[in-house]
Amino acid sequence: MLKKRRGLISVVMVLSVIAFVGFSIAPIVDSIVRANQASSSPSPTPMQTTTAKQSDLQAQARGYELVLQREPDNQTALKGLLQVRLELIQAKQGEIKDVIGPLERLSKLNPENGEYAILLAQAKDYSGDREGAAQAYRSVLTLKPGDVKALQGLVNLLLNQKRPEAAIGLLQDTLKAAPAANLAKAGSIDVNSVQLILGQVYADQKRFDEAIAIYDEGIKADNKDFRPLLAKAIVLKEKGKTEDAKVFFTKASDLAPANFKDQIKQLASGNPAPTSSPTTTTKKASPTPQASPTKKN
Questions:
Q1: How far apart are CA 30 and CA 87, in angstroms?
Q2: Distance CA 54, CA 104 (A)
Q3: Count of CB atoms within 10 A of residue 235's CB?
Q4: CA 53 from chain center: how many Å?
């Protein structure tokens, strides 16, 4: 029963916070997909192709490393090395720690681009350096207190460390700072998204009434956002209020983008499809770091 509940709460974390599907990661990683696409022309045996590709990647890595010995701040070489090392990890010829160096440099050279710092945080977390991961997330939040991906990442890290009160405090402080921050610069902190993350923490801790109260605030603030409706529906279902939950599942489905409607129906029926995301609080199974998805405007 506990395992089932945790699974449903993870769904809250995935679907209630995301809203619109899509991962936002450093542009350099996009080329990995292209590099892994199968060629339509005749090719050697799989073993020969794999070996040749790995040798080529290793040669590319050495080339970028030589450039960086002369020009340590050469961003073209840093991005190229990051890409190659990520591909080597996918080919099981590298480790996550291999990307930390170029990510640290890129993060320092591009402090305004939080993506590099978030990728760095995820790489450090996966490698076991939780303190380093927290510092990387906080470096983003120092410049952008409302960065949802950094907030979600740091919250996940704190929950993995069994520090729910620290996670709650972080989110409550962010909400308290929101009025002044948004007055100084409109849109600095997306209050609804931060509330949703706070609600998911309450739900994860089985503080369901507090979670529902937060979701109600979100529903009142934006009656076009399906996320708090869906989150409230799942929590109500967890509390055994099945009929009340159906009402909110229906409302969420009516407002949700088409690509979420099937998932919502599965949740309402009690048979959610397997879902994985960097926003869950469990240890990431993916061998490559990913930035957390967020609501698109």
A1: 11
A2: 25
A3: 27
A4: 30
Place of tokens 């610069």: 185
**Residue owning tokens 């995820």:** 122
Yes or no: say if 176 and 203 are a contact pair by the CB < 8 Å rule.
no
**Total-model pTM:** 0.73
SS3 content of the chain, % helix, strand, coil (to 5): 70, 0, 30
Residues 75-108 have pLDDT tens digits of: 999 999 999 998 888 888 888 899 999 999 999 9
* 12-35 per-position pLDDT tens digit: 333 333 322 222 333 333 333 343
Choose among 148, 137, 140, 135: nearest CA to 189.
148
- Alpha-carbon distance of 23 to 12, in angstroms, equals 18
Report residue 245 as tokens: 């939950």
Q: Cα(106)–Cα(148) distance, rounded to whole angstroms?
A: 21
CA neighbor of 12 nearest in space, from 235, 165, 175 = 235
